[in-house]
Amino acid sequence: MGEDVPLITIGDDLGLGGALARIWGRSLTGERGEGGLYRPLTLTTFLIERSVWGLNPAGYHFVNILLNALCTILLYLVAILFLKRPLYAFLTALLFLFHPAHPAAVHWISARGDLLCTAGYLAGIYFSLRYAIEGGRAKIFLAGAFFLAASFSKEMAVTAPAVTVLAVYAGTDETWKGRIRFVFMAAFVPILVFAVLRVAFLGTSAASGDAYYLAFGRFMVVNAVKAGSFLLIPFGHEAAERLMFAEPQVFLGLAGFCALVLGVGLFFALRRNKRIMLLVAALVVSVLPVMGMAMRWHMYLPSALLALVIGELLFAKRARAMNIGIYFILFLLFGIGFIQLRSRIGRSSELARRLIKQGEVVLASSPKAEGFVFLMLPSKVYRSGTYTNGFVPTLQAVSGDGRPMLEVIPSVHYGEYRSCEFDLNSSHLTVGFDSSEDYIAPRVRSYIIGERQLDARETLITQDGVELRAKGISELGRISSAEVNLEQDVFPEKSDFFIYYRGEWLRLDIVEEVSGK
Predict the structure, then answer these.
(1) C-alpha–C-alpha distance, residues 404 and 89, integer Å
(2) Dihedral in degrees, nearest 10, Cα atoms 134, 287, 249, 259
(3) Is 407 within 8 Å of 396 (Cβ atoms)?
(4) C-alpha span between 95 and 334 (Å, rounded)
(5) CB neighbours (10 Å) of residue 234?
(6) How many angstroms separate the CA atoms of 434 and 68, rounded?
(7) I want to staple 297 with a disulfide (CB 3.0 to 4.6 A). Which of 92, 104, 194, 493 is the partner?
(8) Residue 259, SS3?
(9) What is the predicted pLDDT for the residue at 173?
(10) CB contact burial 112-125 (16+ within 10 A = b; e otherwise)
């Protein structure tokens, strides 16, 4: 919600022309010359829907569901060109529809970019394949238009030229060879146009600042493992990630064994079917842009190529009973993971609604306060994995209260964290975790990804202008403990300070000093 509300309301009070200029001429943070993310088509859809749905989240979720259905249909069309039989293509698309990574992408409004990018990406591949097989200039122009739309939706479309050429190699016979340069240009030119416009409007190239780029060393290994677990472990990928942190030797042993089995299986499969080799290569290429920060919703586009690889493995030739059995086992496992994650997101959503309702009670009970500062200490109420970042913008939007508000030290924590130590006095708040899974997540202007590592005692400035000093950094480069000076000028005068402690908001003029675990 911390990103949903600001993105949805990005054009408020600017008028249509001003809103479009803001969306197409600035990054998501509204700055020039600092890198960042440039996704104007995604923001344009929010601008249109803002006039239709207002702040009712149901409308935005409905559009995400429609886009998810559209991506499934497009994958079905692509799969027909590979597998030739509608039934096998349907089964491939169904596997994509129930991939366990999808609830995060479809449920989260701000993940709209992944859905739009994937829709444009798959449509571009479909028309490129049709052009390579049948010819026809209109098809290649349509492919280019869809790739351009994908580029303006999310930066992951940068892989389109390589993936499209690999897909055309895999999905067509020898008759297409004279058309390959047009297939490549239809995907490459839109990426070039996107890069040029980005430089013109933002003053930076697509690879500058903290935009998507390849990480190196252990960060790339960690993100590669995360991406692999999100994609390939039908359920339990979160458990795999935790095992990687808690018992790295055990994890490496299991990962090595699984990689060996998978490698042997792929080796024999590739010997029989070079198309699978090309599709696997396309899958790997599609994941490369997120090696700096692999998140579950980033796997939406690669999961489409994964489904195509599985479909090719099981149904490329006459499907035997064993292949059908393997498919239904995979489908069952994917379905279990899908339901598991969807249930967890539902529980987290309920906890978030509870937190917001409690915040509304705080506002109503403080009519004389000129401002509010909310200290977001983790609480045992969060048992399902909750990201507290974004409480204030959501509370402001839901309540309609125009008084200034700040949130301090939001955190990310999963389940029962091992320990959260904190100390609060009249001038400073200090919070710290002892688990690498749980960490402080200040709302800074850009993501901390790739090789960019924080130094202990480094000072960050959040989007709200609050100075936060990192006191401890985990081995993964995350802030494990931080300190905030509560006497900064950025805090509104005559504000009431509230701290979320053991399931309720406490006013700090009642509690002078709090510390504990």
Answers:
(1) 54
(2) 10
(3) no
(4) 7
(5) 20
(6) 38
(7) 104
(8) helix
(9) 65
(10) bbbbbbbbbbbbbb
Lowest mean pLDDT among 9-23, 37-51, 455-469: 455-469
Q: How far apart are the first and last CA of the chain?
A: 27
| Rg (the chain; Cα; Å) | 24
Residue with tokens 């064994």: 257
Q: Are 84 and 316 in contact (CB under 8 A)?
A: no
Alpha-carbon dihedral sign for residues 503, 504, 506, 511: negative
Output the 3-class SS for 445-503. CCCCCCCCCCCCCCEEECCCCCEEEEEEECCCCCEEEEEEECCCCCCCCCEEEEEEECC
Which residues lie closer than 8 Å to 266 by C-beta, 6 or more apart? 276, 280
> Residue with structure tokens 């705080």?
362
Sheet containing 405-408: order of strands: 405-408, 371-375, 495-501, 504-507
Task: Report the C-alpha gap between 443 and 427 in whole angstroms.
Answer: 21
In the three-class reduction of DSSP (H, G, I as helix; E, B as strand; rest coil), residue 424 is classed as strand
Query: CA 229 to CA 214: how far, in whole Å?
Result: 19
Are the beta carbons of 155 and 197 closer than 8 angstroms? no
Q: Which of the pair, 310 or 12, is modelled with greater confidence?
A: 310
**Could you give the dihedral angle defined by the CA atoms of residues 438, 443, 444 and 450, in that order, rounded to the nearest 10 degrees?**
30
DSSP structure class, residue 508: T
Residue 295 has phi, psi (to 5 degrees) of -120, 165
Q: For residue 272, give both structure tokens.
A: 């029989």
Better pLDDT: 92 or 108: 92
Using the CB atoms, write b or e for 143-153: b if 16+ within 10 Å. Answer: bbbbbbbbbbb
Q: Concatenate the DSSP letters of all residues of 391-426 into one string.
A: HHHHHHHHH---S-EEEE--EEE-SS-S-EEEEE-S
Going by their DSSP bridges, the two strands 405-408 and 386-387 should be labelled as unpaired
The CA distance from 265 to 166, in Å, is: 21
304 within 8 A of 117, measured Cβ to Cβ: no
Interstrand relation of 504-507 and 495-501 (parallel, antiparallel or unpaired): antiparallel
The DSSP call for residue 320 is P
Query: Residues 27, 31, 32, 37: is their CA dihedral positive or negative?
Result: negative
Distance CA 263, CA 279 (A): 15
Q: From CA 346, how far away is CA 97, in angstroms rounded? A: 19
Residue 496 near residue 511 (C-beta atoms within 8 A): no
Give the angle 336-342-347 at the CA atoms, nearest 5°: 125
Measured CA distances, 106 to 60, 81, 109, 391 (Å):
10, 26, 7, 21
302: pLDDT strictly greater than 90 = yes
pLDDT at residue 386, as a whole number: 47
Instruction: Give the DSSP letter string of 205-258.
Output: -TTSTTSS----HHHHHHHHHHHHHHHH-SS-HHHHHHHHHH-HHHHHHHHHHH
Helices within 26-111 (DSSP H only): 40-53, 57-83, 86-97, 102-107
Q: Looking at this protein, which amino acid is placed at residue 289?
A: P
